[in-house]
Amino acid sequence: MISDALRSMATEFAVEIDTMLSQTVARHVQVRALAMQHRQERTFLVASNVQKNPMKSQRFELDTPPGRPNLWMEVSFQLRFDEEREYLAVQQSFVGVFKDKESKEGLFHYDYERRKGDGYPDAHLQVYGSSTTWEEVLPGRPLPKLHFPMGGTRFRPCVEDIVEFLIVEGIVNPRPGWKELLNTSRDKFQANQLKAAMRRNPQLVEDFVRRHGESLGIKIAY
After folding, report:
1. What does the pLDDT read at residue 216?
2. Is the pTM of this model over 0.85?
């Protein structure tokens, strides 16, 4: 059944995200996949410490350096089948870092919403902070209200990029082996994005193969 296939793929994705977070920066996190309804379509919510009533992701504590403030992360993905009902697609995603378990204040949050439709970029970053220059340029629009574009549907950042940012900037303490784990996980995401781009642009793929196929050892049948 289609729903069973979608459930299996969403559950596998949840396990991958759980493993990546647990083995890099999270203190205690459980990422699960729960079935939900989006308009007329069956979808799955894959989220951190997700609760059922109401169905919502919960934050988990990050491993921060001694003497630094505690930080909490929240991660959620709304998954569905793509147009061919064969591959997993992200309808919405959210990754945020906050100062505690409930506060709206924090460092930043990253959103993605497919075909957002309100004029803002589908993939965007919002930063919690202040800037006198921004306030002069945009009176009445503080920095946290600005939506910085982040690559669009196909080339947006992944959660591994955000985890890596937290590590390399010294915001969190990583586990041993974090770099290899993030690279492996990110490679899979990027390969899936590339395959999706190829499916949506078959003429571009054909042109590339015709031009470079021989040098790459690809046999072309005419």
Report:
1. 75
2. yes
